Amino acid sequence: MLTPKVIAAFSALTGHDPAGVWAAPGRINLIGEHTDYNDGFVLPFALPQAAYVAAAPRTDGRWRFRSVDLDETVELGQDELVPGSPGWHSYLAGVVWALRQAGHTVAGADVVLASDVPLGAGLSSSAAIECAVLAAFADLNGLGIEPLDRAKLARTAENAYVGAPTGLLDQAASTLCIADHALFLDCRDFASRQVPLAVTGAGLEILVVDTRTRHSHVDGEYAARRASCEEASRILGVPALRDVTDLDAALAHLPELIGRRVRHVVTENARVLESVAALDAGDYARLGELMTASHASMRDDYEITETSVDLAVATACDAGALGARMTGGGFGGCVLALVRAEQVDAVAASVTAAFAEASLGVPVTFLGRPSAGARRLS
Predict the structure, then answer these.
(1) Is the pLDDT of residue 215 over 70?
(2) Could you read off the pLDDT of 196-212 as tens digits, one per residue?
(3) Distance CA 300, CA 312 (A)
(4) Across residues 209-228, what is the average pLDDT?
(5) Could you report the per-residue pLDDT of 264-284, keeping only the tens digit for each?
(6) 170 in catalytic set
(7) d(CA 270, CA 249)
(8) Gap between the Cα atoms of 258 and 261, Å rounded
(9) Whose C-alpha in 14, 28, 30, 49 is 20 to 30 A from the C-alpha of 304?
(10) Is a pLDDT exceeding 70 seen at residue 164?
């Protein structure tokens, strides 16, 4: 836990204690990739790794942001809150901007940030920062903002200020998740349900493999996939791909490439619904099958995987995992594998050995334990 670290850094920066410390977690999407911006279904859970923020108000109407991890400090006034501004601090400044755009009064503040969510690994490090900062500003300014509305504001910061065209999945998971559960979220009406994810009670673990192949949601590939989905919806005359009920008929009206993108989204939505049913029934074997099928769809139809994640998934399954898939926006990042507890070390070792043989470097492995969402710590 990074609470002592951000408190010490805050005191060193300002000469006084913070008014409080807030945290918001990274997330892993158990299943449901690239369905969120198609009005579909997702099933994420929060990680123990989180972004931590120590903050206190100031009276001059300015915001000073410090990153402990980067050892950098940036100070801005309200006239300097400009969408599209580059740099790490845009994720923090974007929250101030989004709150102000929504009509909230946001006083100046000193904010110190530290995070142990791996960057660029598909674990939503940016959403963790946004949601932690938003929780801090909501408390500091006495803003009665409901959790789902907080997630939407954090998404606005990422979409409109940072410029990353992500859906609501990341911010909703970082805000709404509870420990020992996955969050079933309908991305059309944002109805949600907490689904028990009692893997340890079933003698299982979720092994996370950080391939250390970094990606970025701001790059053109992510935006291109989203544009393909929007074009398909236009051709098919539906509000979103979530509304496609006859896949074969839809594919007959689409160009081959766009058709494959649509097939992934439609079948992935179905896999999310099946996964919820499997968890409700305690059928982890079926969950594992659905995870592996999801990865194949991302690899072949959506074309967002690459060598390291494909190798990690194949190796984990060959070593005895019940199922495995890439998680996150794609083009690198993390793989999660559903593994019997007694096989965790063996599966991790097999993946590490496979990476060494393929000259892919050393992956980082850890257990993904479903954890709590954004919260005040002190």
Answers:
(1) no
(2) 998 999 999 999 999 99
(3) 16
(4) 80
(5) 999 999 999 999 999 999 999
(6) yes
(7) 17
(8) 5
(9) 49
(10) yes
Q: Give every CB contact of residue 2 below 8 A, 6+ residues apart in sequence.
A: 23, 50, 52, 114, 115, 116
Angle at the Cα of 97 (from 91 to 166), degrees rounded to 5? Answer: 50
Name the active-site residue from 110, 170, 210, 301.
Answer: 170
Alpha helices in the chain (DSSP H): 3-14, 90-101, 125-140, 147-156, 169-176, 220-236, 247-251, 256-281, 284-300, 307-318, 344-357
Q: Which domains does the chain have, with CATH numbers?
A: 3-194+372-376 (3.30.230.10), 198-367 (3.30.70.890)
Tokens of 219: 């790059």
Name the pTM for this structure.
Answer: 0.90
pLDDT computed for residue 216 by the predictor:
54
Q: How many residues does the chain have?
A: 378
Strand arrangement, sheet containing 334-340: 323-327, 334-340, 204-210, 364-367
Q: What is the DSSP letter of 81?
A: -
CB atoms within 10 A of CB 236: 18
Mean pLDDT of 251-258: 97
pLDDT tens-digit series, residues 278-323: 999 999 999 999 999 999 999 999 999 999 999 999 999 999 999 9
Structure tokens at 205: 């673990």
Mean pLDDT in residue range 122-134: 92
**DSSP H/E element including 367:** strand 364-367
